[in-house]
Structures are given as C-alpha cells and as structure tokens.
Design a protein that fits this description.
This protein has 380 residues and is α/β, with parallel strands linked by helices. It is 26% helix and 26% strand.
C-alpha cells in the first residue's frame, strides 16, 4: 500500500506503508491482578495495525524489554493505568510507515523508543528537563488504552524514537532504551561523575546496575558494585573493580575497608564519592555513612522499600548531596547509544521470551532469582 499526501510546497509529503496485513497480535490485559498471577490476565489479541498520525512513525517490533513498571501496571498500583492495556516501554524495530510531517525517519530505518513522553513546549521541556514536565507520561505504562510495545506493530511520535546505530542489535537497543538512559542520566546528567572518583553501584546485577558499572568505568572511575553472592563474579567480568555481597549485614564495612585502601589521587579523605542507589529500604543509612565529605547519593528507585529512615547528621555534618532522578532526555539516550556503537557499553541480556510466554517472563523478573541483565520479549 502506497499513500501520497501532497504538501503546500513544491516537495511532496508522503508516507509509505509496507503493512500488508490488516491485523496484528498484541499482548493485552483488561483487568488488574491482585495476586501477581499474570497468566490470569495476559491474553494474546488480534488488533488493527496502527496507521501513523501526521507526526508519527509506525514500526514493526523486533524486540521489547521488560521493566518493573509492567508489574505495577498489571497490579493497577501505584497508578490505575488505562484498560484495556498493552504494556512495553522499550521497543525496537523497523519503520514501516511515516506520517506526512515526519522529517527525520523513513521506511526501513532501525529505531528504538524513547518512552518519556512530554509536552515539549513548557519551560521545563525547553530548558532540557523534559523528564520533569508536568504532563509527562511513560509510554507503555501510563499511555492507552492499547498503546505500548508488546505487539507486532506500534506507533510513536517522531520525537519519541531514536535511530539505532550500526553494530547495535534490536535486542541490545530495546534492553538499553529506558535502563541505560536512566543510568546515564543518574551518573552523568545528575551526579556529574568525574575521572578518579570512587563510585558505589548498588544492585549491580540489575539492568540499571549493569549499565551503571559500565558508564562509571567509561568515565575513568573506580567502581565498587554490590549484588547477591551468585552474581559477584559477573560484576567483575562487567568491569567492576570490587564486588560486595550486599545481603550481608556488615556489607558496608567491607566497602569502607576498600575505600580506605584506595589511593586518593583527587583528595585526602577516604570515602565513596558517588553512590548509585535504587534499592532503598534498610541499606539507606549504611550508604550515607560511606560517603566522603561533599559526596553524592543519586537515587532512582526503592525496590526494597520506600520508607527509609535517615540519620540527618550524616547529611549536614559531611555536606552530602542527595539527588533524585527519573529517566533522562532524548539527547542523553543518543549519547549512550553512541558509546554502545563504539563497543564501550553493552547490553546484558538475561533471557528471551515470546509474547505467548509473557507471564513466565514477568514472573521471572518479579522473583529476580538468578536474574542478571534484561529480559527480552519478541512478537515472533
């Protein structure tokens, strides 16, 4: 099918659609789960293939990556997301159609989603803080009904897709879309890491932790990473200089001992300069004791609990910086992909599933046992 739309200037505006089939399969749920039995609600449905609006592209999904917000969505907590729902924030694929106003993409381009959807015109957006936009929504989590990446074809505004560079696969790009972006924004955009710093990556076995280790090493930092004991060797293989079991009650004492041994070429006080935090819970105060004077903790989540007690003496006495972070900018995603194309950052893929195996895939992510890196789903 070829559709030509004439523009007002001398150049024809057009989009070419190669979607010959009329329907596609999609992973849909129409109710929330109360017991995390995802198999009860996840169903494969036949839906119409989307056609692009004037500013949109449609792409055939080759790979999509799981995120924890998929589980929040299926629970309907902390947000009651639109129903019926298609999840999937991180999707990569091949462009099959473009709207008449699309300028920078064409049919056949390899693209990946940038799931942070914002108004693009408010003061926050135009100052480079689109992640703080009051109208921000997360595509595939808050959008809908029936608008996400777990399907054969999906659509997004041109501004919410990024070209995949040569040498990066669809699977690697999907894995990196939100997770690498989040890690890059935490360390580079917010904490502004510098060569020679000592960086503690909490939960290094997770998706964000994997990228956090690599980004810190890219910037010439010394890295201590934590994980469960079965993942410590993998942290070292990924580039961490030291690996610590954070399930031990005294894990922070091991970190402190390492910090005292490391020559401080950029200061005279031993301690951690930057803590990459997304665990929260009972670890929080232990982390604060490890920071150097003027040190920074950058947090983007709290998988072990939100209600962390804080000993304020650590903060005011040492002049600590506590920074929050969510996602990042489209430009930061492109920066990360540049380094991926140079082989300096890689995506760690734990496992791959089909859409029909979605319940099993999400259960694995929820339990986390033996999980190292990202879980990928493919439509076929």
């Amino acid at each position: 099918m070829i559709i030509i739309v004439c523009g007002s200037d001398d150049t024809d505006k057009s989009y070419i659609s190669t979607n010959m089939k009329k329907t596609m399969k999609a992973l849909v749920y129409e109710e929330y789960t109360t017991d995390d039995d995802f198999s009860k609600i996840l169903k494969i449905k036949d839906l119409p293939i989307p056609e692009p609006k004037s500013n949109e592209i449609v792409f055939k999904v080759k790979a999509a990556a799981l995120n924890y917000d998929d589980i929040w969505g299926m629970r309907g907590k902390p947000l009651a997301i639109p129903l019926p729902h298609i999840s999937g924030t991180d999707a990569a694929g091949e462009v099959t159609a473009v709207g008449e106003d699309v300028k920078n993409f064409k049919v056949g381009d390899r693209v990946v989603s940038h799931g942070n959807m914002s108004c693009r015109v408010c003061k926050r957006c135009t100052s480079g803080r689109e992640y703080d936009c009051k109208k921000r929504t997360i595509w595939g989590f808050e959008t809908g009904p029936l608008w996400g990446g777990y399907c054969e074809y999906t659509h997004l505004p041109e501004v919410n897709v990024v070209k995949i560079p040569e040498g990066v696969s669809y699977e690697e790009a999907a894995a990196a879309s939100m997770t690498m972006l989040t890690s890059w924004h935490m360390l580079v955009g917010r904490a502004k890491i510098q060569p020679g710093q000592l960086v503690l990556i909490m939960g290094g076995g997770s998706g964000v932790g994997n990228y956090g280790i690599q980004i810190a090493k890219l910037f010439g930092c010394t890295v201590i990473a934590t994980a469960s004991p079965d993942k410590l060797d993998q942290l070292l293989e990924l580039g961490a200089d030291y690996a610590i079991d954070h399930r031990k009650d005294d894990w922070h004492k091991e970190v402190r001992a390492i910090a005292k041994k490391i020559p401080k070429a950029y200061g005279d006080t031993p301690g951690v300069d930057v803590i990459f935090e997304h665990i929260g819970g009972s670890h929080w105060n232990k982390e604060l004791t490890l920071l150097n004077y003027g040190g920074t903790v950058i947090t983007t989540g709290a998988t072990t609990g939100y209600m962390a007690k804080t000993d304020l003496r650590h903060i005011f006495f040492k002049g600590l910086n506590i920074l929050g972070s969510t996602q990042g900018t489209r430009a930061e995603l492109e920066q990360g992909f540049y380094w991926m194309s140079k082989g300096k950052i890689k995506s760690i893929i734990d496992s791959e599933y089909t859409l029909e195996q979605a319940a099993e895939a999400h259960t694995k992510m929820l339990k986390g046992k033996g999980l190292f890196g990202k879980i990928i789903m493919k439509p076929s």
